[in-house]
Write a structure and sequence with these properties.
224 residues, single chain, alpha+beta, five-stranded mixed β-sheet, 2 domains, 2 helices
Length: 224
C-alpha cells in the first residue's frame, strides 16, 4: 500500500511538472526565422511564410510583395529595391531605378514607358567593330566601351517617330553631349545608328527622347 502511495505521488508530481513546464513549451510562440506550421505558431505581428515566421522586414521570407513591409519580394526574400538589390524587372526596384544585370540601379530620371510602347517594341545599346557594317556586324546589349569606339542605338519602331538622344553624366549632373536628333523621322521597322563617342572615362547614361519626352535610358561606361 505504501509503495502504491509513493507511485501515485510520483505520478502527481510528474503531471504537475509537465503542466507547468511542458505546457509552456507547447504554447511557446516562434520568433522571427523560426519554424512554424501556421500563423498561430508565431509571435505577435509575425506571419508563417513557407514554414518560417516572418515579420516582412528586409531579408524575411516571402511569397509575394504583400508579405513584405517594403513591397518588394525577390526569390522568396523581402528586399528594399535599392541600389544593388536583386531584381527580375524594374518593377522590383524603387522609383527612379531600373533592373540591370539582375540588380537594381539608380538612375537620374525615370523614362516614360507609355510613350516608349507607343513608338517602339524594343531598343538597346550596341557597338560596331572597326570596319564593321550595319546591321550584320552590330553587337547588341553592350554597356562597356572604349573611348572613340562606335556606340550604337538600335531597336524596332512600330510608329513613325523622330528620335533625339543625349549623353548624361550622373556624377557631374550635367550633359556630356547635348541633345541632338536624327535629321528626319524614322519609319516602321528595325533601325540602327552609330557614331564615335569621344568623352572621358566614366559612367554615363544614354538618353533617348521623343517630343522632348524621355522614353529610354541606358547606363554605360567608358573604360579607356
Amino acid at each position: 500500500m505504501k509503495k502504491v502511495l509513493i507511485v501515485v505521488i510520483i505520478l502527481i508530481i510528474a503531471i504537475l511538472v509537465f503542466w507547468v513546464f511542458g505546457r509552456q513549451f507547447l504554447l511557446k510562440k516562434s520568433m522571427e526565422g523560426e519554424f512554424c506550421k501556421s500563423d498561430r505558431n508565431c509571435q505577435q505581428n509575425l506571419k508563417c511564410i513557407t514554414n518560417i515566421c516572418s515579420s516582412g522586414k528586409t531579408g524575411s521570407p516571402c511569397i509575394s510583395k504583400n508579405d513584405c513591409q517594403t513591397n518588394f519580394c525577390i526569390k522568396n526574400k523581402c528586399t528594399e529595391g535599392k541600389d544593388g538589390d536583386p531584381c527580375d524587372t524594374s518593377n522590383d526596384c524603387q522609383k527612379i531605378s531600373l533592373c540591370k544585370n539582375s540588380k537594381c540601379l539608380g538612375i537620374s530620371e525615370q523614362p516614360n514607358e507609355e510613350t516608349f510602347k507607343e513608338y517602339f517594341s524594343d531598343m538597346g545599346l550596341g557597338i560596331l567593330p572597326p570596319e564593321g557594317k550595319l546591321p550584320m556586324d552590330l553587337q547588341q546589349n553592350v554597356d562597356i566601351f572604349k573611348r572613340g569606339e562606335q556606340i550604337c542605338t538600335y531597336g524596332t519602331i512600330i510608329k513613325e517617330v523622330l528620335i533625339q538622344s543625349a549623353i548624361y553624366n550622373p556624377s557631374a549632373k550635367k550633359f556630356a553631349i547635348e541633345k541632338g536628333g536624327y535629321p528626319k523621322p524614322l519609319t516602321q521597322g528595325g533601325f540602327a545608328g552609330c557614331g564615335p563617342i569621344d568623352i572621358a572615362k566614366g559612367k554615363y547614361e544614354y538618353k533617348i527622347y521623343v517630343n522632348d519626352i524621355l522614353v529610354a535610358l541606358f547606363p554605360f561606361e567608358i573604360i579607356d
